[in-house]
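Supplementary Methods. Inverse-folding protocol.

Structures were first reduced to a discrete structure-token string of length 190. This string, shown here, constituted the complete conditioning input.
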């Protein structure tokens, strides 16, 4: 296995050797929001409405780098949030499904619209509602703080928690496995 993947002086691939090969085949990254793009905390204001969502800026750059390489990102979440829509718009994420009860149905709609199969995608979720969309994915991913049952089901568990660079870790994994990371890094340093 290549040793090109190194996050914070650890190599999570050592524990998940199948992740490298699976990441090399990814054509679409599908993400849950709460607990994946955020740390999972929900802040409710005095008006009873969700008031804040915090996103890791490096996660956003990772998503944009995938897009530059022709790998789109999709969002499937059980909650409705204007803040999620605003972040997706900022990142150029076109496939956004919110308020979803059965995430597998939403994933199938996205895959059909893109002419892909479930094995073409990486799906990242952190808790039980994500099993539906993860079960047939080519690469199943769970962030470090995800529920134990999801970690056991995943092909790869990130070293970093959701909302704190876990998505960037996955984006880097995909880019490295597809031999695109070095090219992008060279351009960034030029």
């Amino acid at each position: 296995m290549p040793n090109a993947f190194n996050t914070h002086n650890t190599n999570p691939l050592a524990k998940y050797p199948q992740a490298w090969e699976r990441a090399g085949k990814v054509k679409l990254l599908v993400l849950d929001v709460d607990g994946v793009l955020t740390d999972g905390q929900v802040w409710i204001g005095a008006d009873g409405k969700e008031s804040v969502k915090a996103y890791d800026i490096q996660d956003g750059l990772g998503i944009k780098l995938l897009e530059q390489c022709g790998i789109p990102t999709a969002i499937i979440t059980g909650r409705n949030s204007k803040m999620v829509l605003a972040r997706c718009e900022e990142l150029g994420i076109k496939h956004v499904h919110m308020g979803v009860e059965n995430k597998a149905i939403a994933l199938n709609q996205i895959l059909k619209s893109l002419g892909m199969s479930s094995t073409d995608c990486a799906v990242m979720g952190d808790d039980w509602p994500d099993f539906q969309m993860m079960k047939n994915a080519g690469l199943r991913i769970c962030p470090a703080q995800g529920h134990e049952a999801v970690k056991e089901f995943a092909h790869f568990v990130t070293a970093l928690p959701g909302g704190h660079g876990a998505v960037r870790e996955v984006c880097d994994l995909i880019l490295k496995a597809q031999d695109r990371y070095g090219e992008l890094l060279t351009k960034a340093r030029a």
